[in-house]
Amino acid sequence: MWNFLRNRQSSREVAKGRLHLVLAHDRAGIEGGKLQEMRREIAAVISKYVPIDIEAVEVQIESKSRATELRVSSPLPARNG
Amino acid sequence: MGRAIVITSGKGGVGKTTTTCNLGAAIAQLGASVVLIDADIGLRNLDVVMGLENRIVYHLVDAIAGRCTIQKALIKDRRLDNLWLLPASQTDDKDAVSPEDMVGLINELKATHDFVLIDCPAGIEQGFRNAIAGADEAIVVATPEVSSIRDADRVVGLLAQRDIPTRLIVNRISPHLVKKGDMLSQADVIEILALELLGGVPLDEHVVASTNKGMPAVLEGKSLAAREFTRIAKRLLGLEVEPEREVGFFGRIGRALGFSSANPA
Q1: The CATH number fitting domain B3-259, selected from 3.40.630.180, 3.40.50.300, 3.30.1490.150, 3.90.1150.10
Q2: Per-residue pLDDT at A4
Q3: In this complex, do B181 and A15 lie within 8 Å of one another by their Cβ atoms?
Q4: Euclidean distance between CA atoms B161 and B34, whole angstroms
Q5: Best mutation site among B149, B192, B193, B196 for testing chain A: the one with the most A CBs within 10 Å?
Q6: Which of A46, B82, B119, B239 is deepest in the core (most CB within 10 A)?
């Protein structure tokens, strides 16, 4: 399904999407390995306070108009009772 | 006091030298005096693109080493009244010149000319640092391709660190491919790089022929690329620029059939 949608995207749109991603990382000056290391450390810190699935923690770098943003997201478990 | 503008891109082969050559000729046509500096030491090319390769006696490194005066190293372009070239050395190394040398050289040229255009080598190493050292402004040239835009972005970051005001030229745009969805548009490139646009130069086979002959395209008539280079030169001079009529693909084809075979589909 995803591949089907992707194939319908023009190469221009694909290029734009890839560039946004690559430039966000270039501008932040963080390589892939460093980012993963940071992700694991952040996940470990969160898990000290909340029981979370460490593998589900995501770290993303986004860039718009030369301002770069680091976004960390993690699903939190529902509190039962 | 003149303005020193560096033309840079990060990536090679995107049209820095052609842009330098044509902007220089267009500015000179408009009446301002211009010196073009080939800052690509060891890989000089602006001389052949300008068609001045047979007239080189001294070069940039000679001038900096004091083997001749700066004025003596300038080659006058005989096709225009106020256009000069300071060629690079073909035998020296990039580190034959320091950023301080370049600042001194450019300041001296700014005292005698309205514009000093510096053709920057590809890359972001010593040659780049030399080329931007004496620049008051920068023009980043990018083609609508991922590799070119990525490298341009690196260069934009480095120029921003030095507080050099930077504007963008998008080069070799094929309206046909943009329309088909197979090329980033000028607007896409502006959005991604977040830079002020100075101009968008269409892909134009006249430029290939001009370069073969060593003749700036702007001196050869009104091809699409030549017209845009002239508009960019006017913007640099702060002159009124007639708005380009927004012509669609078919309009362009019609115009191409009319008096130019530009933009091969």
Answers
A1: 3.40.50.300
A2: 55
A3: no
A4: 27
A5: B192
A6: B119
